[in-house]
Amino acid sequence: MAANGDLIELKLDTLGHGGEAIGRYRGLVVFVPEGIPGEKVRVKIKERKKNYARGEIKEILTPAPERKEPECEVFGLCGGCHLQQMDYSLQLLHKQKIVKDTLERIGGFEEVRVNEVIGADHPWIYRNKAQFPLGSDNEGRVITGFYQKGTHQVVPHRQCVIQHPLINRIARKTISILNNYDLTVYDEKTHTGLLRHLVVRVGICTNQALLIFVTRDKKFKELQEIARKLMTEIPELKGVLQNINPRRTNVIMGDKTLLIKGNDYYIDYIGSIRYAISPHSFFQVNTLQTERLYNTVRKYAGLSGQETVVDAYCGAGSIGIYLAGEARTVYGIEVVGSAIEDAERNAALNGINNCIFIKGKVEDKLPELVDKKKIKPDVIIFDPPRKGLDKETMATVLEVLPPKIVYVSCNPATLARDLKEIKACYDINEVQPVDLFPQTYHVECVVKLESNV
């Protein structure tokens, strides 16, 4: 049986949800990063557990026809991308299979139609948001990039191939300016140092940007001067802010954000709808593909102008506002107060007056909306975080039984779990994957559900 350090040969059979290819060696499941199903490879065992192992490709004995040279020079070291080794058309096929296999394995859905993935016309330079950790090199200079796989060690990188070019330019210029000052970088082990992260957000349709410095404390006397220099040299930069995160945590941003110079928002579009995006706004990272995602939601909702719609986990109101022109009333529910403020601003920005936004947890406010305010939704749109729906929300759904549900999910596993809970009461007509995250294993899904009771 294979042990750590052993070299083995194996055939790769499938692609796991984490983007690793999977093969079997004498009954042992072996996960292989950067592999492609169908390939025969020579692998070195790096981690051996009781029921599985992880290996590193040392030689590709039979390469897949779809194998390609990665675009990024640090692919395989940086943990940001997982699938650059394969042609994009093959990525889409595997994402469809991952969704289908997950629905069958967890939810027991063998007959549900999983459509072909709606791919991106431009599978590179698509991201509108980057969260760059900061580190220091051997000479004490500030560097940025992304974390190495499985670590918090920064891999220096100046040109991420999935980030919008303006994001890369802002990051490079910012690091250049920071190194003209005597500044310290945050150390997770000692909880010392000032600079934690750079967060850059860009309007793909408007070429406007925000830059947020995430720091351990407020004391950053040089920031006014740095912000002035950056906004002078980068005219697309509409605002510079400081976010203060004093906690020992992997959560990037803290609760307090200060405007240093310019505006605290930028404008972007999805279709014809304008959105003001602030530092904490939830906004999908692939703007162009989000229009396709929302058009799928619109299609599945099938609104006639007379419906009451609940947009659960509404964030900055992006889905509800996108659909508002085809509904009677839209109720958006979101726990983050600043997101509710963004949603109200976005509705006003588009002259929309049939959206009502409610601050609170979905599991609390949805029952309250139904039981106390006697509002019976015709359509509920769920776009929850990766953990999916909680038990209280599920109980409300099974009590109210809205005629239609449109479920938007970024996690096929929790999607399958939640659908299994309500499949006795709903026909699950089809699942439409949309690729918002080319070069990674992630995939977004939209599911159409219609009540059968």
UniProtKB/TrEMBL annotation:
Q: In its keyword annotation, does this UniProt entry include Protein transport?
A: no
Keywords annotated in UniProt: Methyltransferase, S-adenosyl-L-methionine, Transferase
GO MF terms here are: rRNA (uridine-C5-)-methyltransferase activity
Highest rank taxon of the organism: Bacteria
**Which Pfam family, any one of them, does this sequence belong to?**
tRNA_U5-meth_tr
Q: Where does S-adenosyl-L-methionine bind?
A: 284, 313, 334, 383
Q: Where does the TRAM domain start and stop, copy by copy?
A: 1-59
Record's signal peptide: none
> What Gene3D superfamilies is this protein classified in?
2.40.50.1070, Nucleic acid-binding proteins, Vaccinia Virus protein VP39
Q: Which SUPFAM superfamilies match?
A: Nucleic acid-binding proteins, S-adenosyl-L-methionine-dependent methyltransferases
- What are the recorded Gene Ontology BP terms? rRNA base methylation
Q: Where is the active site?
A: 410
Alphabetized PANTHER family for the sequence: RNA M5U METHYLTRANSFERASE (PTHR11061), TRNA (URACIL(54)-C(5))-METHYLTRANSFERASE (PTHR11061:SF30)
Please state which protein family the record places this protein in: Belongs to the class I-like SAM-binding methyltransferase superfamily. RNA M5U methyltransferase family.
What name does the UniProt record give this protein?
Answer: RNA methyltransferase, TrmA family
